[in-house]
Amino acid sequence: MRRSDLGEFEEVVLLTVAVLAPTAYSVAIAEELEQETGQSVNTGAVHAALQRLEDKGYVSSVLGEATAVRGGRRKRLFTVTALGGRVLGEVRSVRNRLWDRIEPQTFPGLDLA
Amino acid sequence: MNPHPKVTPEPPVWIDRLLNRICAPHLREEVLGDLHERYYLRAERLGPKRARALYRRDVLAYLRPSVIRRKPNPEPSTHFANPDMLRNYLLVAWRNLIHNKTFSAINLLGLALGMACSLLIYLWIQDEYRMDAYHANGPHLYHVLERQFYDGKVEVGSGTPGLLPDELKKQFPEIAAAAGLSWEEQHTFLVGNRFNKEKGRFAGADWFRMYSVPLLQGTAETALDGPNNVAISRKLARNYFGSPEAALGKSVRLDNKTDYRVSAVFEDLPENSSLRYDFLLTWPDFIARNEWLKEWGTNVIETHLLLRPEGGEEAAARLEVNLKSFLKSRSKSLQTGNFDIQLFLQKHQDAYLYSNFRNGYPDGGRIEYVRLFGIVAVLILVIACINFMNLATARSAKRAREVGVRKVVGAVRGLLIGQFLGETLLLTLMALGIAVGLTWLLLPTFNSLTDKHISLGITSPAFWGTLLAMTVLTGLLAGSYPAFFLSSFHPIRVLKGAIRFGSGARFFRQGLVVFQFVLSMLLIVGTMVVYRQIEYTQTKNLGYDRENLIYLQAEGDLGTKYETFREQLLRMPGIQTLTYMDGTPTHRHGSTGNVQWPGKDPNASIQFQFSTVDYDFTKTLKLKLKGRDFSREYGMDSVSFLINETAARRIGYREPLGKPLTMWGQAGTIIGVMEDFHAGSLHQPIEPTIVRLSTKAAGKNIIVRTQPGQTREALASLETVYRQVNPKFPFAYQFADEEYRKLYHSEQVVGRLANYFAFLAIFISCLGLFGLSAFTAEQRTKEIGVRKVLGASVFGIVSLLSKDFLRLVLIAILIACPLAWYAMSRWLQDFAYKTDLEWWLFAGAGAIAVGIAVLTISFQSIKAALLNPVKSLRSE
Question: Which residue in B608, B607, B610 sits closest to B589, CA to CA?
Answer without folding.
Answer: B610
